[in-house]
Write a structure and sequence with these properties.
This protein is mainly α and about 210 residues long. It has a domain of about 120 residues. Helices cover about 50% and strands about 5% of the residues. It is built from eight helices and two strands; from the N terminus they run H-E-H-E-H-H-H-H-H-H. It has a two-stranded parallel sheet with strand order 1-2. Helix 3 crosses helix 4. The two termini are about 30 Å apart. It holds the Pfam family Glyco_transf_90. This is Glycosyl transferase CAP10 domain-containing protein. It comes from Prunus dulcis.
């Protein structure tokens, strides 16, 4: 709710448009106002961490939209201003995220990851799972029947048509301390650079006033 303070008002326009989602009402009307395809029309989208398992970030990244973290109003305004003044770079950032989702997060790779996760999880089980006697099998084709457009296209692409003729991928080893330190240093340096740009932006605004 604190983020809603960054919405447009009579006093300020932080270049953000924020909406409250009534999920109970959405569920009753078939989520027609929260369709993921319709959300891809925005140039920028804010990613907000959820309270539990969050699935929204990959959909935001797949939209070719430049993803904005939910910092505060000044940071959001700076990010939008920067993107509007560097449209080619903002477009490249959005397209790079979209390509990452479509190429590096292909369902084949997701299934490989699920294979490793379930195998490791199975080692922790102390009982043998069984199928309940009244269980009903749900076919993947039935799940995709009601879908339309791009949503159905991706659902069909993710369906398993036959057993794979390849072994699942081999998980890379964890970072060694030196490599992990190098990654964290590069990330911190990038963050500091953006923060410096933001400070310069607001200092220039204050000088003009």
């Amino acid at each position: 709710m604190d983020l809603l303070k960054c919405n447009v008002s009579d006093k300020n326009d932080w270049n953000t448009r924020l909406y409250i989602q009534n999920w109970e009402q959405e569920s009753k009307q078939g989520f027609k106002d929260s369709n993921l395809e319709n959300q891809c029309k925005h140039r920028y989208k804010i990613y907000i961490e959820g309270w539990a398992w969050s699935v929204s970030e990959k959909y935001i990244m797949a939209c070719d939209s430049m993803t904005l973290d939910n910092s505060k109003c000044t940071s959001l305004k700076f990010a939008v201003e920067w993107g509007n003044n560097h449209k080619d770079k903002a477009k490249a950032i959005g397209e790079a995220a979209s390509n990452f989702i479509q190429e590096d997060l292909k369902m084949d790779y997701v299934y490989d990851y699920m294979f490793h996760v379930l195998n490791e999880y199975a080692k922790l089980l102390k009982f043998k799972p069984t199928i309940p006697p009244n269980a009903v099998e749900l076919c993947s084709e039935k799940m995709a029947c009601r879908a339309t457009g791009t949503c159905k296209k991706f659902m069909v692409e993710s369906m398993v048509g036959s057993p794979s003729d390849e072994l699942p991928c081999t998980l890379p080893p964890p970072y060694d301390p030196l490599a992990l330190h190098g990654f964290l240093v590069r990330k911190a340096n990038s963050t500091r650079q953006v923060e410096a740009w933001e400070n310069e932006y607001w200092q220039s605004i204050e000088k003009k006033q």
